[in-house]
Amino acid sequence: xxxxxRIHHRWSKLIAPINGKIPAQGCWSSGWDYYHYYQHQNLPxxxxxxxxxxxxxxxxxxxxxxxxxxxxxxxxTITMPESYWLSVPQATVLSGRQSVGSVVAHDGKVIHxxxxxxxxxxxxxxxxxxxxxxxxxxxxxxxxLGIGGGGMNYYHWLTDVLPRxxxxxxxxIWDKIDYFLxxxxxxxxxxxxxILGIPLAKRIYTRFDRVLSSPLVIAPQFLRAQPxxxxxxxxxxxxxxxxxxxxxxxxxxxxxxxxxRRRILNEAEILDYLTPLGYVPCWLEDLSxxxxxxxxxxxxxxxxxxxxxxxNIAWCPPGGRLLEIFPSESIPSYYWVLAxxxxxxxxxxxxxxxxxxxxxxxxxxxxxxxxxxxxxES
Length: 378
What we know:
The chain is an alpha/beta fold and 378 residues long.
């Protein structure tokens, strides 16, 4: 969080109990429930548009040097919910620490599946318990894209924020949007909004404890699942902007040596082994967004520690291979799913010498690493 945002957040928490109020007095479990309840009551602007219906996705079992897949990969089929946007008349939009982008309908209920907070416990939503400052009243139609922190995290920006923009391209709603409430992107990632046709003049950036009221709020569903259309959209949108003359590197090792945390302490040994095999270390923080797209669009093998940089496998050609190294007992399945959707074979290595969700540096077992790479290339 920026220093100015921290000051604003603390000040807002001081004055909110005096001048603010709790904005929601209950919740709708879904946008469909809200729409279905009010659809025949002639609410001006109320609309529900579903572009992708529910369906099932199937993923190949991850590959590794272990006799059985890790428990994190015990499932290979998932049912994806439908993907939709909802236009909510006379609504309020919140930007609390956890409630960024939460939409409170005209009846005083927060619409749960438009919010990133409390996936399994909607009644705990911050909108129902925390006092917020008085809302700023707008006379314009706003679209809600903010999720809180997404603008600074490469994975969440690409897979949670930008695909919701794609939802708004359908159903004839795009030209009716005056402003977009969105997380402020880092300078490196802002070009994504330019390419998608959201000019600076139409952006309102989320801020902790900012509250906006609008005669019409348009909110795409928060994508808790990982539907394949997200990746299809990213590839169709950004791969045409890659530099086809960019240096071709077919074997990439993503280095974190310039990071402040979660580094591989014996990376020199790792590179001593990888370099003769043709792997080239890459420092993604030195590359622009489109340079990363260009680099990975030509990669056939990618090796890296679990982290946001692996999101770049979205640009890899089908048939490539990824080896993800887990340094702690936290084993998210994000990149297994992403790789499967692209058509990249997924391999993993466990180097569990750190606590779950640890940000500590790590040491990789060199013998196991060599076995994993041999398996990757076999």
